[in-house]
Specification:
Radius of gyration: 20 Å
Distance between the termini: 15 Å
Strand content: 25-35%
Mean pLDDT: 92
Helix content: 10-25%
Number of domains: 2
CATH topology of the largest domain: Alpha-Beta Plaits
Largest sheet: 9 strands, mixed
Structural class: alpha+beta
Length: about 260
């Protein structure tokens, strides 16, 4: 009988073309599937909670995988998998789930962070966007609060995608300071391609005084990507959490092996 598991893992996306396999570059999915297939000696396919773009990082990504056979007794799957994976991908745990549980469609919440720094920092330049102009973060937060009032975010979506709807329910969106870094945290039931980076780019226009919060509202209502700001670089974006209903899990949530 086929058994399904959720695999929780993180990755530095700098050298990958994103999560999903692509014909023109190496993806996180390709590397992980190869490692798991090597251990299990059979071809394995993974389905993730979402597809991060090239250069985007994940502190917590979830993917499901199906097994036809049990692993040999005594094997520590997580440790063995981490030994095969490169240093920029790390598996945290695996959890047994219902056979019909789906890493993408059963997720009811996803949380992203975008990091910016205002000063030169040799320890964060690879994982944050440096800003060279003063920003009014209070004004940016007033604009971000307007996101709660809308569900259609066509203005912040990558053009010509194959999604059926551009509707999302945003439940949290705010800038907070962490020492010399500012972090924009946003949580929603789903996200469109390029959505977070486009929202951040537009909020930066507000912070620089080039757009008012009311004009930010007009951008949302226009449902036109051309009205929004430029997308910020991928290196500052992190997927940090994915949430599921408790009833999808059949094993212990803290399990570290199959």
């Amino acid at each position: 009988m086929k058994q399904r598991y959720f695999i929780y893992f993180s990755y530095n996306g700098a050298r990958y073309c994103g999560w999903q396999m692509q014909p023109n570059g190496i993806s996180v999915q390709e590397v992980m599937q190869k490692a798991i297939s090597t251990i299990l000696r059979t071809n394995i396919e993974m389905t993730a909670a979402g597809r991060t773009d090239a250069g985007v990082h994940a502190r917590c990504m979830v993917a499901h995988v199906d097994l036809e056979h049990e692993l040999p007794a005594g094997i520590d799957f997580v440790s063995k998998l981490n030994s095969l994976l490169p240093n920029d991908i790390a598996v945290e745990k695996t959890v047994e789930v219902r056979p019909d549980a789906h890493a993408r469609f059963d997720a009811f919440s996803r949380r992203y962070e975008y990091h910016v720094v205002l000063n030169k920092n040799v320890f964060s330049h690879e994982f944050a966007m440096r800003i060279f102009h003063p920003l009014d973060f209070e004004r940016m937060n007033r604009a971000a609060e307007l996101l709660y009032q809308y569900t259609d975010f066509t203005s912040f979506s990558k053009l010509h995608t194959d999604v059926k709807t551009n509707n999302c329910k945003i439940t949290y969106a705010r800038w907070t300071q962490d020492n010399d870094k500012w972090i924009f945290t946003i949580e929603a039931d789903r996200f469109l391609r390029n959505m977070v980076r486009a929202i951040v780019g537009t909020l930066l226009e507000v912070g620089r005084g080039k757009m008012t919060p009311d004009e930010f509202r007009q951008v949302i209502e226009a449902r036109n990507r051309c009205d929004a700001g430029t997308s910020v670089p991928a290196k500052g974006l992190f997927l940090v959490n994915v949430e599921y209903p408790e009833d999808v899990f059949t094993g212990q949530r803290g399990s570290s092996e199959f």
